[in-house]
Amino acid sequence: MTENRAFAEKCSFPFPLLCDTTREIGVAYGAAADGNSGAAKRISYLIGPEGRILKAYPKVSPASHPEEVLQDLAALNRRTPE
């Protein structure tokens, strides 16, 4: 967990990173088959302020995914009335 904290600080993330050591969350979201899974699949979910999943990304490329999510957030903000 110390590695997560160091990584978050290095990248200046304004939020803590989750460490799913039991794979409980990974199993719930479909990233891991069970608690004994080695590595989780690279998937991502865009979750809104109300806790609802707004978009699922079943296959994530680390190089292009941040830009993809930013574009989706911008599109959502354009559709959301103020």
Topology diagram in text:
Elements (H helix, E strand, L loop, with lengths): L1 H9 L13 H5 L15 E4 L5 E5 L7 H15 L3
Antiparallel strand pairs: 1-2
In short:
By secondary structure, the protein is an alpha+beta fold.
Question: If you had to describe this structure to a student in words, what would you say it looks like?
Answer:
The chain is α+β, with helices and mostly antiparallel strands. 35% of the residues lie in helices and 11% in strands. It folds into two domains: 1-41, no CATH class; 42-82. It is built from three helices and two strands, in the order ααββα. It has a two-stranded antiparallel ribbon with strand order 1-2. β1 (44-47) and β2 (53-57) form a beta hairpin. The longest helix is centred in the last third of the chain and has 15 residues, at 65-79. It is globular and about 45 Å long. The protein starts with a helix and ends with a helix.
Q: What is the helical fraction, as a range of percent?
A: 25-40%
**Can you count the helices?**
3
Rounded to an integer in angstroms, the radius of gyration calculated over CA atoms is 15 Å
Question: What is the average of the pLDDT values?
Answer: 87
Uncertain segments: none
* Main sheet attributes: strand count, strand direction, barrel closure: 2 strands, antiparallel
Spatial strand sequence of the major β-sheet? 1-2
Cα distance spanning the termini? 38 Å
Number of domain units: 2
Number of strands: 2
Shape assignment:
globular
